[in-house]
From TrEMBL:
Listed GO MF terms: acyltransferase activity, transferring groups other than amino-acyl groups; ATP binding; metal ion binding
Presence of the UniProt keyword Transmembrane helix in the record: no
Gene3D superfamilies registered for this protein in UniProt: 3.40.630.30, ATP-grasp fold, A domain (3.30.1490.20), ATP-grasp fold, B domain (3.30.470.20), NAD(P)-binding Rossmann-like Domain (3.40.50.720), Succinyl-CoA synthetase domains (3.40.50.261)
Name assigned to this protein: GNAT family N-acetyltransferase
Protein species of origin: Kribbella sp. HUAS MG21
Main EC class the enzyme belongs to: transferase
Domain ATP-grasp: from-to ranges: 688-726
Amino acid sequence: MTAIEQPGTTAGTGPDAGWDVLASDGSVVRIRPVRRDDEAALRAMNRRVSDESLYLRFFGISRNMADEYTHHLTTDHDGHVALVAEYGGDVVGIASYEVLRAGEAEMAFLLQDSVHGKGIGTLLLEQLAATAREHGIERLRADTLGENAKMLRVLADSGFEQVRRLDSGVVELVLDTAYHPQTLEKMADRERAAENRSLQRLFAPRTVAVVGAGRKPGGIGHELLRNIVRGGFTGQVYAVNPHAGQVADVPAYPSISAVPCTVDLAVIAVPAEQVLTVLTESGRSGVGGAVVLTSGFSEFGTAGRELQRELLAVARRHSVRLIGPNCLGLVNTAPEVRLNATFAEVAPTPGTLAIAAQSGAVGIAVLEHAGRTGLGISEFVSLGNKVDVSGNDVLLHWWADPRTAVIGLYLESFGNPRKFGGLARMIGRTKPILVVKGGRSAGGRRAGVSHTAAAATPESAVDALFTQSGVLRMDSVEELVETARVLAVPPLPRGRRLAVVGNAGGAGILAADAAGGRGLELPELSTGVQEQLAAIGAVGTGNPVDLGAAASPASLEQALRVLAGCGEVDSVVVNYAATRAGKVEEIYAAIAAAGTASELPIVVNCVGSRHAAPEIELPDGRRLPVFPFPESAVRALAHAVRYAEWRARPQGVVPALARVDAVGARAVVARFFQETPEGGWLPPGQAAQLLRRAGISVIPVATASSRAEALAAAETAGYPVAVKTAAPEVLHKTDIGGVRVGLVNAVELGQAYEAVTSAAGDPRVLVQAMAPSGIELAIGVVRDRLFGPLLMAGSGGVLTDVLADRQWRGLPLTDLDALDMLHSLRCAPVLAGYRGARAADQDAVLSTIHRIAWLARVVPELAELDINPLVAAPSGAFAVDVRLRLTPATPEPDWYARHLRGDQP
């Protein structure tokens, strides 16, 4: 059986192989490849399975038949894949498929009766389908009795495309393993519901025990306990301290097992060497969730990492969801919970921003700044080392939380960025996601021979992920909070047209400059609108609108009403300096009066009063944000515009491609590895073959090792031709004089051959017919260990490194992703036909980009691909110079494979 892999991790076949997933009741299930030593456990499961379940699975009640099939799955490793499910320490289910023919296999399931209704069958089906898809299986077949209602329901509810045939009481199911929209929707709904049930014990506990709550103030456990009490927690709280009967007026018990009721949440603040013992006792006592504040784990080197692995194993054994270790704690401001289980001095107020921070210090900074600006928090969690609960988990949890309108994350690492991106694409359609990604300076350029690999950095991968998934990347915590303040107040901007109005002309100019620098437009207002503003007393009626230093609050209100109702702008920035002509309270009242009736977003910059409130409360409960500087107000609004544009645009589709040959592409790869098992750079001819299997137009090329061979190749190709050095160590051929183009006869070719080989010190050259005249682009792909294939499009030829005009995207690549990729290049106007020049065939360029994405998907061995140049001509797009490297690899599952530990670095 082929080992299954997971993005960022390897399942392997060892004792720890597999993935922790959530059953429908929120409990943890491990799904992993079957092992040889599973036979005894599977035979024991066969004894626990009812006669009815055996009959429905094997069309008979012979347990010997079940044992024989168990022996086959655990000992015979050819032609099939089998996965087992572990729950509560037992093997409770198995799913398998047997290959019937190319692209098709027969699947089967057996589940212990005691776990029916927990969604474990669905989890096995999803992972089995993902595994089959990775290995080229397009259809899974199953024969089941018509009376097997439970299995039929699992298959019907899966969301996968199915074809059914009914004959003599037997239902034949044919399941398409491809992901369709309804498949993804149902998978996301199931995971979201399971995640909510699982995290409920952490964010909304009825009982909390603080283990390690010391008697003296100042200690972490003591201060956290006091925060819980001071915050008005609506449940019951206990202290665990073997040396006290009471801590901070809270009853104390010597151990968590001595607490007189079942504890939902244990907050652990004991030394690192005691954490395992406390967590084990907690699990045995029925604790559902734990927050480990203690440091001294993976951040402390090898010994700490091993201790952290043991910590997770204990949590999994007892189905305890775990936050941390090395974290600050969590907060839920919901009135029915009111839990502040942190040791921070900040007490967040209720609001609509949910925050997760990998760093406790950054978490405190976010809470403090949010509180200072009046932004309330729905929930906050310090993720720490993310041994269990990750950024992906809280995204799913907050997706369904009605109190959360905006999600903010501070992350330092990704372990499963592809899953993060997929979740963000779905969640972002209803809730904006703001991310500060730490560690920008730590990543350097990767080693690589191709232009694409040399240009790829960790930052380009993160930017591509965020761009495609609609995530707003913030440069600082301050920017995150500012942007959240704007996004928390509906409505979203409907476009880029901005009006600036106020009594501070200088601030208005600064706001206008900031808007222009961020892609916002300040349209000239129509004559009618300007006349209305002049009648109010405006001294400048263009845009910005200057009401004059002596403008009254009443005139500001009138001007705002005019602008909000004119239909010529999409949002408004108010710049107002407090003067004796209008007190701050009166200014705020005027803005509130106009803002209540406005259907446009309004942000405010108020200067001249140190004691001005950070927000303006409207009668309908909305709170308009007030900023100290015009630039910060515009910056936050520009982010809101960008998010609104992404949310409003269609999601796009991955186009179906004609003229692609997956079987032929795999054959080219197989032939190469037969000759070069360790992998490497493909010879130019084989690289061209592989691209042609993807339907990419490649200018024919021939290799020559002598002048005579070069002349013969030129005769075959037909003049004019180009000659290039084929020396493998030369990346920038033109830099050393290793390229000659436009050679029209044998004399010129002979001279060029001598010059090129002399410059490179290598007799090998490439002889190639001349490509049509056009714009030179660079198109490529590089496979990142965590992010998967990264596609690059940019200016090519000698301008590749000079301009650094590049765009990056990941998979899956939709039609809109590719279009945005191309139109974002600085050379885009040239492609469209600049100053009367003929436009390039942009459809052909887009097709080439999609075909490279297809190749990266069907050839997981593709490590680097560089087409430079790709000539974008009016008649099509033609690959001229191709470099392609393959490395041994096994197929990678995509982000949809379920995995709780997805963010583990």
